[in-house]
Design brief:
The complex is a heterodimer of chains A (about 170) and B (about 80).
Chain A lengths: L1 H13 L6 E4 L6 H18 L11 H15 L2 H17 L4 H31 L3 E2 H8 L3 H13 L3 E4 L2 E4 L1
Antiparallel strand pairs in A: 2-4, 3-4
Helix pairs in contact in A: 1-5, 3-5, 4-5, 5-7, 6-7
Chain B lengths: L1 H11 L12 E6 L3 H10 L8 E6 L7 H9 L4 E5 L1
Classes of the chains: A mainly alpha (about 170), B alpha/beta (about 80).
Chain lengths: ~170, ~80
């Protein structure tokens, strides 16, 4: 449940319609119910269209890059540790209500994930086209200027990117 | 890969009308519950759309957020997890 909520919020962060992901329960004895669930879900996805064409969704080429960055970010130590600590806390408080889970994921897991996702996406953007300035990168990644400044500073510290008169490139 | 083939079919249908759209869906089914339900549905000859590609896991606890993101990255239009 916590994992599903984390995945949903990560998908929201990168601009995928998070209702494309569905978590349902069907026991081995509930074959007709399973058929209903699948039929309903497939027709739901059909009405949304292909990934990148739904309403409130980023376009397909942006999503491809974002998903690439997101997969790397989801493997990052910081969001994964935060996830583990959140699971521990929810267990300790014995509060698995949807509100508590959503609130916990939003506060603890997503900030680390988002920062990593923006950093990875910056690297991908610069790989596609070097010499971009911070404003370009903000519009490509959807980051605010503070988030972008921090991401660029961290990447520069690790010597992954370098600046030349306001224009950034991969090292 | 069959998913690429499906994408090509979707593009070649030209008009991209929603009724012709054939989504590629990845399904994570847990062995004891959902996979068994799907198996039972197959044996009982229930009809349902063929768009779900099934990955059997022993328990939905096995699933990580990375699986879901990777599925979308590889071209899935939807991810269905059955527990």
């Amino acid at each position: 449940m916590v994992m599903a909520e984390a995945a949903r919020q990560m998908l929201d962060d990168i601009g995928v319609d998070s209702s494309r992901m569905s978590l349902q329960w069907a026991s081995a004895a509930e074959a007709p119910r399973f058929v209903e669930l699948i039929t309903g879900y497939v027709s739901d996805i059909k009405s949304k269209g292909a990934l990148g064409t739904g309403e409130n969704e980023a376009d397909a080429s942006t999503l491809r890059r974002r998903l690439d960055a997101a997969v790397k970010a989801a493997a990052g130590r910081k969001p994964r540790t935060a996830f583990g600590m959140l699971a521990k806390k929810l267990g300790k408080d014995n509060d698995y209500s949807p509100e508590a889970i959503a609130k916990g994921v939003k506060a603890k897991v997503i900030p680390g994930f988002r920062a990593l996702r923006i950093a990875e996406e910056v690297k991908l953007c610069l790989e596609e086209k070097g010499g971009l300035d911070a404003a370009d990168l903000c519009s490509m990644t959807g980051a605010s200027s503070e988030e972008m400044d921090k991401a660029l500073a961290d990447l520069a510290k690790k010597k992954h990117v370098s600046e030349d008169n306001g224009r950034w490139s991969l090292v | 890969m069959s998913q690429d083939k499906l994408k090509k079919e979707n593009e070649m249908s030209g008009d991209a009308r929603k009724e012709d759209f054939n989504p590629a869906i990845l399904g994570f089914f847990c062995h004891w519950c959902c996979y068994a339900a799907a198996d039972s549905a197959g044996v009982s000859r229930y009809q349902y759309p063929p768009n779900v590609r099934v990955v059997r896991v022993m328990c939905t606890g096995r699933i990580d957020t990375r699986f879901i993101l990777e599925a979308f990255k590889c071209g899935a239009d939807g991810v269905f997890t059955g527990g």
